[in-house]
Amino acid sequence: MSAHLSPDEIRSALSAAMSRMYREEVPAYGTLMELVATVNAETLAADAHLKERLEETESLARISEERHGAIRLGLPQELAMMRRVFAVMGMFPVGYYDLSTAGVPVHSTAFRPVGAEALSRNPFRVFTSLLRLDLIADEALREEARAILEQRQIFTAGAIQLTEKAEREGGLSAADAERFVTEVLETFRWHDRASVSADLYHRLHDAHRLIADVVSFKGPHINHLTPRTLDIDAVQARMPDYGIAPKAVVEGPPTRKCPILLRQTSFKALEEAVSFQSSDGDWQTGSHTARFGEIEQRGIALTPKGRALYDTLLTESRKLVRPAADGSNARAYEAALAEAFASFPDDWAGIRAGGLGYFTYALTAKGREQQGVASGDLESWIAEGLVCFDPIVYEDFLPVSAAGIFQSNLGDGAQQDFVASPNQQRFEADLGATVLNEFDHYAAIEADSIAACRQALAMRIAAE
Ligand code: OOG
Ligand code: NI
Questions:
Q1: Rounded (to 5) percent helix, strand, coil in the chain
Q2: Which atom of ligand 1 has the smallest separation from the CA of 69?
Q3: Fewer Cβ close by (within 10 Å): the C or N end of the chain?
């Protein structure tokens, strides 16, 4: 039997292939990638300490290759199969996001690698939403949408066969993995021929723009791919120089010395030519707006306590100023955000002391050399300079930010109010699995690093 390629390598290959495909489909994405690479190089050149910590925590190499994408699925069986396909690449569902509160009729999870090792290899994630047909009020339209979706097959026969093979044999050979990536890429490809008539498209669109995006096409085209930047303010400021118009404000926390969670911004979705089939079999031209570009800066993963503080401060600032889609109050919003977040500690030691964020711990050079640390605990080792700590990167998403990104692409005035109706149980039943809890995941990475320090120091004691 031939050896299996590691899921990490298959994931890296798909991420790279998707980036190449999207670059061809949406040239502005390529431009954004260049800008991000430039800003990242400048940021590292100007900040030797940041560079050293990223190298030390083995996260420097991943950054230039790092990205997330997003897709929107139509039916439960699509979600269940998608889960199996992602599992071949070591990507598992983490977190549940209810976006109905934001007026978007979907709920979602993020498929991503789990565990420090896999994340450092390649952290590629895909934010995956499932349309809530139950939130379409018009019953006739809901059934029409369901019937259309039931006719489509978003996976190639090859993708299904290879997924089954991987499940049966516990992995794929290098040759099979290469075919798998080619086949799976097809699911994410853009199709400019709609599978519905112009009339149905418009009725779906009137119900919600996103419903039209999910139902009208052959598959769940990737709607954005997001590179990671080390300085989102610099990228946002320079986008116009590159001919790209950014959305009005950056979503998430304000600019800080110690980045927390996730900050994101995007450029508006493109209006693209599509054609609709008319009853006489002819194609009729029209347009559709769905695909956009996004960038993000990732900061430290917060504990439940830190996250609660973040949520409170964000809500507080939005009560003061709600960012308008046209950017008219962008400065006032930024000021309100900065003011609200003044009470969130902005140094790593303070964040750690407050129990607000997750860290990994490692022996310092002194810790590695010094003999005879017979007693003490983590705090004393830190105080003595034997152990140092680094922030754990937040690998997940933020529902309020996601809503802001969705909204900025639905066009101004497209806000629609749905009543909040989270239904994680339904989502997990459709997925065919439970989603992992993100906090448990970060806590485990932190605990493992502490155990490793303890063991290393104890081993030295034992060796004496
Ligand atoms: C997904 C929006 C969520 C993010 O970065 O928060 C997202 C979508 O538009 O389908 O990707
Ligand atoms: Ni995104």
A1: 50, 15, 30
A2: 11
A3: N
331 C-alpha vs ligand 2 centroid, how far in Å?
A: 24
Give tens-digit pLDDT for 20-79.
999 999 888 999 999 999 999 999 999 999 898 888 877 777 787 889 999 999 999 999
The pLDDT of residue 204 is 94
As a whole number of angstroms, the distance between CA 352 and CA 364 comes to 18
Q: What is the pLDDT of residues 259-276, one digit of tens each?
A: 999 999 988 778 889 999
Tell me the CA–centroid distance for residue 224 and ligand 2, in Å.
7
pTM above threshold 0.85: yes
Which amino acid, 169? E
Given a contact cutoff of 8 angstroms between Cβ atoms, the answer to whether 388 and 429 are in contact is no
CATH class held by domain 4-299+395-433: alpha beta
Which of 256, 248, 336 lies closest to 299 in space, CA to CA? 256
Domain residue spans of the chain: 4-299+395-433
Nearest to 335 by CA among 319, 311, 347, 317: 317
Reference 104, options 229, 211, 6; nearest CA is 211
Pocket around ligand 1: residues whose beta carbon is below 6 Å from it? 70, 72, 127, 129, 223, 264, 294, 397, 401-402, 405-406
Does the pLDDT at position 417 exceed 70?
A: no
For a ligand 1 pocket test, name from 101, 104, 224 the mutation site with the most ligand atoms within 8 angstroms of its C-beta: 224
